[in-house]
Design brief:
With 367 residues, the chain is of the alpha/beta class. The protein has two domains: 234 residues, Aspartate Aminotransferase, domain 2; 123 residues, Alpha-Beta Complex (Aspartate Aminotransferase, domain 1). It is built from 13 helices and 13 strands.
Length: 367
C-alpha cells in the first residue's frame, strides 16, 4: 500500500472554487495586496482571536518583521531553541541580534525552566516555537518575560488553529508569526506568511515595514522592506480558512489512531506527549524510535514515506559556527535529533492507510 507523507495535489485537484478566485484576481489586475489581502487578514485575525493580522511574503519574514517592529537589532539577544527549522534562527540573525539558544523539554518545545539562566542584560525577546503544532508552555514563558521586561514573539508557523484552554496560539504573545507555505495546515499556492497582534501601534508600523515604509504612493516615512503578500496567494489562503477546523479535527483523529495503534510498542517508540487543555494542530506527528534508519528503510519498502523534522540541530550547522555553540550544549535536543521520525498525518489519509503504517511498525519491532 502506498502511503505518501503529503498529498499536495489532492488539495487543488478539480477545485473549481480555487480556479474561480484566481480568475477573479487575474481579471481585476490587483496582484499585490488589495481587497483579497484585506479580506484574508480580517478572517485570519478572527480565527486567532486578535485585533489584527498582517499578511506578508512568508513565515520567515513574519518572524523578522515582528522582531524589527520591536526595535530588536545589533547588540541584542533573542532566546529560542536549536531544534526548529533554521528560519527561526535565521530571522533573528537577520535583525543583527544574537540567537541565544536554550534546550527543549520532552514535548519538543522550549524548556521554561532553562530560560532564565540564558537571560542577561542584552536579552530583548523570547521566541518560543510551537513545534509540530503543539503549543509551548506560554503561561510560564509569558510570566518569565514579564518578570524580565522581555517581548514574546511566538513562531507559530506549524501551529495554526492550535490553542491553550480555548485561546488560539496567535493571541498568546506580543506578536505571533505564521507560515502559509504549501506544507502547512492552512496554506496557499506558494509562500506566504502572517503576523498577528492585539497592538494597534505594532499593526500600524507593520503595514509600513512590509511595504518599503511607504505612507502613500510617493512618500516613505522610513526605509523598510518589501515583504508584501500577493493577492492570489491571499485569496487561495482565504478559502483554506473556511476548512481549517475540519483539517485540524481530521489531523487530530489521525494522531489518535497512531496513539492507539503504537501503544503496545512503548519499549521502542515514544509517542507525542499530550497536555490537558491543549489543542494540538498536528502539523507533524513526531515519534522517537529505536533503530530509526532501519525502520525508515523498512517502511519505504512497504510503500510508506516518512520524514525527519529535523535531523541536525541548528547549533551543529555550519551557519551557526560563529556563535560558539558546541556539541553537547543542548543534550535533550541532540538526543531527540537521533531518534525522531515524522509519520504521515495529513488531511487526505485514509484510516486503512494509518492502520497499515501501524501494522508495519508493529511488524518491524515485534519480528
Amino acid at each position: 500500500m502506498e502511503v505518501k507523507y503529503l498529498d499536495l495535489q489532492a488539495q487543488f485537484k478539480e477545485n473549481l472554487e480555487v480556479r474561480r478566485v484566481i480568475d477573479e484576481i487575474l481579471s481585476s489586475g490587483q496582484f499585490v495586496m488589495g481587497p483579497a489581502v484585506e479580506e484574508f487578514e480580517r478572517n485570519f485575525a478572527q480565527l486567532c482571536g486578535v485585533r489584527h493580522a498582517i499578511g506578508v511574503s512568508n513565515g520567515t519574514d513574519a518572524i523578522f518583521l515582528a522582531l524589527k517592529v520591536l526595535g530588536i537589532g545589533e547588540g541584542d539577544e533573542v532566546i529560542t531553541v536549536p531544534n526548529t527549522f533554521l528560519s527561526t534562527v535565521g530571522a533573528i540573525v537577520q535583525t543583527g541580534a544574537f540567537p541565544r539558544l536554550v534546550d527543549v523539554a520532552d514535548d519538543y518545545n522550549i524548556d521554561p525552566d532553562k530560560i532564565e539562566v540564558a537571560i542577561n542584560e542584552r536579552t530583548r525577546a523570547i521566541v518560543p516555537v510551537h513545534l509540530t503544532g503543539n503549543p509551548a508552555r506560554m503561561d510560564k514563558i509569558r510570566a518569565i518575560a514579564e518578570k524580565h521586561n522581555l517581548f514574546v514573539v511566538a513562531d507559530a508557523a506549524q501551529a495554526v488553529d492550535a490553542s491553550i484552554r480555548g485561546r488560539k496560539v496567535g493571541s498568546l504573545g506580543n506578536l505571533s508569526a505564521f507560515s502559509l507555505h504549501p506544507l502547512k495546515n492552512l496554506n496557499t499556492c506558494g509562500d506566504g506568511g502572517v503576523i498577528t497582534t492585539d497592538s494597534d501601534e505594532y499593526y500600524e508600523q507593520l503595514l509600513l515595514y512590509r511595504n518599503h515604509g511607504l505612507k502613500n504612493r510617493n512618500e516613505a516615512r522610513f526605509f523598510a522592506y518589501n515583504c508584501r503578500l500577493d493577492s492570489i496567494k491571499a485569496a487561495v489562503a482565504n478559502l483554506q480558512i473556511k476548512r481549517i477546523q475540519d483539517v485540524t479535527e481530521k489531523r487530530d483523529r489521525n494522531a489518535a489512531l497512531y496513539d492507539e495503534g503504537l501503544a503496545d510498542l512503548k519499549n521502542w517508540i515514544k509517542i507525542p506527549p499530550r497536555r490537558s487543555g491543549v489543542r494540538q494542530s498536528f502539523h507533524t506527528y513526531v515519534v522517537q524510535v529505536d533503530n530509526r534508519e532501519e525502520l525508515i528503510a523498512f517502511l519505504a519498502e512497504k510503500g510508506v514515506e516518512t520524514k525527519i523534522h529535523y535531523p541536525i540541530p541548528i547549533h551543529r550547522m555550519e551557519a551557526a559556527k560563529r556563535y560558539g555553540y558546541q556539541e553537547g550544549d543542548f543534550p535533550v535536543a541532540e538526543a531527540m535529533a537521533g531518534k525522531i521520525i515524522s509519520l504521515p498525518v495529513h488531511y487526505y489519509l485514509k484510516e486503512e492507510q494509518i492502520r497499515f503504517v501501524v501494522e508495519s511498525m508493529n511488524e518491524f519491532y515485534k519480528r
